[in-house]
Amino acid sequence: MNLKERFLNQLAGKTVDMTPVGCTTTYGMVELMKKCGAERPLADTDAEAMTTLSLAAELAGFEMVKAMGWDITPMSEAFGCTLGVPQIDLQYCIKEHPFAESLDGLDYPSDFLSRGRFPTYKKQFELLKKEVGDQKVIFGESEGAFTCGANLVGTENFMKWTFKRKKDVEQILETTKQAMIDVINFAFENGADYYTMAEPTAGPALMSPKMFKKFVVPMLTDIADKTNGPLVLHICGNTDLIIPLMCETGVKGLSIEEGANMKEAAKIAHQNDVRIFGNVATATTLFMGTPEESYKEAWAALENGTDFLCPGCGIAPGSPLENILQLKKARDDYFK
């Protein structure tokens, strides 16, 4: 079986020869950019440079290829958020929240997929399909609908509003949910094999499981029902308390960080026919640790039942490539 077949079989719960290895979030590393010659900020806005950096995943030992850039702001940008200026070691980030003072004018624009970087992403998908064919999976990724909503009004505001202005939160999420559905289907129509929704704002560090169940689960369930391919849900931090709720949403995969208990998460996920991605630590081990520590942590993730050996979150730009390569080395050694 080729890499794409192995990945899709694993996602479907079928038997494979070994665990796929890669990154299901973002891997815009400075060292990787310099090796392939496609550097940010050009690789954030130019389809050819973006594609070159995507394909450089092979230099990191990854077996899946990322489309749609190197940050989780494209929907927020299309809704009117002002972004900071990217540098080679700094991705796009939210600088201004257009609806922090008032929701007047908030709607879902009919030309949404013509805004921002979406036309560039369409071209990138075309280029990636020509290069990859049916040999590797291509995935799309962006911020999820809840995180997008927080970006529109500011995270602190949004968290407060879940208690004090629930109707406003519901209005925002109804708008961002529609955008999310269309963006995901846009990705599938243009060649994505699966899609990752990054929801750092929906984690237990910022909201309780009770509020997650109230606001996030119904929204994600509706998104999963109305999109045309398998979804992976990434949430940062220790997600132990919400793993069962994440599994209820209809997604096919969960991407978890090192703060979560991989063994328990895999057990719960498999009981719900859901697969697990993760969970080698990005901020500590892969960024500041040694190759030996990276190898050891990757081996532990395999021992604890990960279905896809991946970093637990987006890889920090300054992470040494040698640390990242330990994931594939550990996987290969584990299955010898």
Describe the structure.
The protein is α/β, with parallel strands linked by helices and 336 residues long. It has a single domain, classed as TIM Barrel (Alpha-Beta Barrel), CATH 3.20.20. 47% of the residues lie in helices and 11% in strands. The protein contains 15 helices and 9 strands. It has helices at 3-11, 30-36, 42-45, 47-55, 74-78, 118-132, 145-153, 155-164, 166-189, 209-225, 243-247, 262-271, 282-288, 291-303, 321-334; strands at 64-66, 82-83, 94-96, 137-143, 194-198, 231-234, 253-255, 275-280, 308-311. Helix 12 links the parallel strand 7 (253-255) and strand 8 (275-280). The longest helix has 24 residues, at 166-189. The two termini are 17 Å apart. The mean pLDDT is 97.
Note the main attributes of this structure:
336 residues; alpha/beta; 15 helices; 47% helix; globular
Biggest β-sheet: count, sense, barrel?
A: 7 strands, parallel
Give the SSE string. HHHHEHEEHEHHHEHEHEHEHHEH
Approximate helicity band = 40-55%
- Strands side by side in the biggest sheet: 1-4-5-6-7-8-9
